[in-house]
User: What shape does this take?
Amino acid sequence: MFKILNLNLINVNKEEYTYSFKAGINFFKGKNDSGKTEFYKFIDFMFGSSYNISNVPWYENLEKAVMVFQKDGIKYKIVRTKNSNINYFDYIDEPDYDNNEIDFEEYKAKLMAVFSPNEKKLRELRAFIDEDITYRTFTLFNFLGETRQGVVNDFFDKSHEIKYALKLDSILNFIFNKNLEAINQLKIEFNSLTSDVKKIQAELESNNFIRKRINDLLLQLGVKKIFNGKNSSDIYMEIEKFEKMEEKPTNDKVDLSSLEIYYNTLSEQINEYDKVIQDSKQIENDNRNRESLLRNLQELVRDKKDYQYLINPIISTLNELENSISFSRYVRQDEVVKKLKEQKNDVKDEIQRQSSKFKMYSFNEKTEKIVILKDLLGQKNNEIDLEDLEKKKRRIKEIRYELKKLQNSEDKEKLNKVSNLMTTLYKASKEISTISKTDFNNEGFHLEYIKKGNSIQTIIFDELNDKKDRYYIGSMARHTMMQLCGYLSFLVMMIKEDRYPLIPFLVLDHISKQFDKENGKAIGSILAELYKNIDKEDLQIFIFDDETYENLNISADYSENLLLNNKTGFVPFYKPELK
Assistant: This one.
């Protein structure tokens, strides 16, 4: 149950003007420049839009606006001023306190608390979309202005704004998804696995860092043992030997010099072999090309007697080439080079060890390295199950795929319900509108909601209830009727489900703009059919138009002319001559 009860405008001279509203349809008539569109925007402003009214002429004498609304039997009073950070939010039975002002974010947070479903349902929405979606995002279902009327592809008015467009697909996926429980369970598993993998990878990085640091220090001290994460006791023994100087440096500088000479010799040999290999590869490649040409020539002259004298020389040349290719392979000796390079690396490592061995450490340097080594060896070095880690990563990848598939799946039954309600609402106008009458003269005519693209299409079903044809033509009036039916169908569905942070109202600006006199009455017929599907206490409608509600065949529950009672329009304190 929801209803805005009144809106009280107060100017700087403490003069007041109050608009009172009723459940159902509230209709406001006004000619151009009477503030219809400003009134339309102001309702959104009162419910937390960031619309800056400070520089808008209509509000130059306005001090504040007070709105009273009722939700589920509780009455609330909200107050906004031209300063976005001076707002008030109270229950109606609480006294007024001027020092209870709240900033803009707190104001919206309090409204969010009012229009949120229960916490469980809100968690489902948050878990599905992976972010907090507030009632402000859901206002895209509440407002249909005149600039985007007649749009049936991506038909919600606010969806052309980036901040709403970016979230619309996720919201529609949530609305039309019947796998919420499965998705929630997968996300719980996904979060748990992700946390485990991050923890394991952090431990793995820590282990690798510690091992590398330990081995660097061992190398600097000339200890030949390699720490592998499991041989701490062996390393401790080596450190003890070093401390006791049981393995004393020989200071045999000649051995180190010999190693360096040997290393340089190996490097020169490898370079020479590399050159031979490159040359032999080039020779082999050239000979292969010659062999191919000669074999082609042999095939050409094989059966031609006049050229038989060429056969034997060709065969002889081919044999020579084969021998040359074999010899080049022999000369290359790739395996020899490989072993030489391995030997070179071994000598390099030995030189590094010997360099450390021959280095004369000061007592402090030696002690410092040993202390660091012992400290690193004493740190926890958990054994990582790499196979388990890869298994978890594979499962995370599988879950991502499953989640994407489930989140993009559609509840066909629910989509059909929306399509059927749109068709029912549209059909209600066929006795009064030539537009819808023409459509329903086609047997099997139906409106279909397409989630992808958030669009409304017209189709024809055959006698077997299969789609037979689609319409893509129509006037702006026809499309506006369809668009209005789309808005109303969504609101009815979402209000009845009661699982969205939604304000249960609809605000329409100049809805008659696209219609002629007769077809404009279709609006009233559609709204009358609407209230056969939902109670007026559950969905309140505000219409701002330059037509009378009678001309639109609307049964208004409350109506007011914005220019009567000596008013200049929406804000009675606004005087055009003051501009």
The two ends are 42 Å apart (CA to CA). The CA atoms of residues 87 and 106 lie 9 Å apart. Confidence is low (pLDDT under 50) at residues 246-254. DSSP finds 15 helices and 13 strands in the chain.
